[in-house]
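Section 3.1: Structural characterization of target chains.
Under the original work plan, the team committed to producing a structural model for every single-chain target entering the pipeline before any wet-lab resources were allocated. The record below documents one such target. The sequence was received from the expression subgroup and is listed exactly as submitted; it comprises 189 residues.
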Amino acid sequence: MGSPEHALILRDFVTADFDRLIAWVPDERSLIQFAGAIFRFPLDREQLSMYLEDPLRKVYVVVNEGQAIGHAEIYRESADIVKLCRILIGDPAARGKGYGRKLIPLLMERAFSDPDVQSLKLHVFDWNTAAIRCYEGAGFKLDTDFSAELNRDSIHWKVLRMTKQRQDPGLQLLCTEGGPRIDSAQQKD
């Protein structure tokens, strides 16, 4: 499987990827954690086909050493705001190995490569502390003015919003041989 030291790449999510993603969300709780309320369980090819038709969505497969390990989306909310969403390290063998910490800067790089984008946001459930720490490590900050809940059947989860602005300290687009890279290291006092 490799390690998170290897470069992740994003490639377009296409119909050939549907069955893999469906297998990664085997129950309703997993689907809601991954996608919020956008899909219904069980996830199927018809829902994914409609999902891909939305021109505001850029949907990706996360690849490490030629193997698909995850899924991610960048959703255009307005000319200057995009949302990072439906982020999943789906391959069970890849979970807990630091790939999320490499994926978030990669998504930030992709989003901020558009000079019109000034703000990123994402939603996360309050109990998902590992994801919250990952996003904080990439420089996202909690939006304390936002409050929401997701309620479906027996699931009642509080939703948090986190944001990152282009002009935030610690965000630098670095030009490297492989193209622009983001340095999201936090500045020291």
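The first helix runs from residue 18 to 24.
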